[in-house]
Design goal:
255 residues; 2-enoyl-CoA Hydratase, Chain A, domain 1; 38% helix
Length: 255
């Protein structure tokens, strides 16, 4: 998939030119005095086809070096590889220190999954969050195409579980927003529970809504259920005829 094809996956093309201009940057700064680690995640997530890139391995290395420091992530990304985004989410959730994520500009697709790892998700003035359907590149027979659609549906179930760890709307409402490709302002993201704070945004003279409808125990329970959500059913896999397997013909999940 080249750069143009990557951005064509967005139904709403109004912001594509701006998304293309996001600089590719990954930077880690440890402050041992303040016991904080600042991580900048700008640009495409996962191994890029056209530019410098970073992956879940880079995040893992940064968090290992951070030890028990509190983590501050500065995020501005159009998305990228779905499983890198999911891996980064899970790695951040397991970190012992507090994780604060600032959406500096955009958190689209896989970047929106990473954003859900925040103990406190702060959307800066003018920033946007976007959630949508996952996609992939695959070629083959009609049977292989149908099988790929089944895999994408299972992938989205796991992604909806991740959104459910923060959002205060129902699972079905989340699914509808994913299917429709939903772009959210800082205010909307806070009202729906995806974000915890919107910098510089007024809420009709009222205090900002807070994500209190879901307790810590609720979130832990949901996260525990995520552990096996994306694991294939081994018995089912064995029963499938060899020609139905598409792994060799797949070129990654993009989200």
């Amino acid at each position: 998939m080249n750069k143009e094809m990557f951005f064509k996956q967005f139904r709403n093309q109004n912001y594509v030119e701006q998304l293309k201009e996001i600089p590719q940057k990954f930077n880690v700064v440890h402050d041992e005095e303040k016991k904080t680690t600042n991580i900048t995640i700008y640009g495409v997530i996962g191994k890029s086809w056209w530019n410098d890139s970073f992956s879940a391995t880079d995040i893992d290395n940064a968090l290992n070096e951070a030890k028990d420091n509190d983590i501050i992530v500065n995020l501005n990304s159009p998305g990228g590889d779905a499983f890198d985004g999911i891996s980064i989410f899970n790695r951040l959730k397991r970190h012992s220190g507090k994780v604060t994520i600032h959406i500096d500009g955009w958190a689209c697709s896989a970047a929106s999954v990473i954003a859900m790892a925040a103990d406190e998700l702060i959307m800066e003035l003018g920033s946007m969050l976007m959630i949508h359907e996952a996609s992939s590149l695959v070629w083959g027979t009609k049977g292989e195409m149908r099988k790929e659609a089944d895999v994408l549906e299972e992938l989205e179930e796991g992604i909806i579980d991740i959104y459910s760890t923060k959002a205060i709307i129902s699972r079905e409402e989340i699914r509808q927003k994913v299917d429709a490709e939903t772009w959210m302002s800082a205010k909307t993201a806070c009202e729906l529970g995806f974000a915890d704070k919107a910098e510089g945004v007024e809420f009709d003279g009222e205090t900002q809504p807070t994500n209190t409808d879901r307790t810590n125990e609720d979130r832990k329970s949901i996260l525990n259920e995520l552990n096996g959500i994306l694991q294939p059913n081994s018995k089912k896999q064995k029963e499938e005829p060899e020609q139905q397997k598409v792994a060799a013909k797949r070129r990654g999940f993009f989200f």
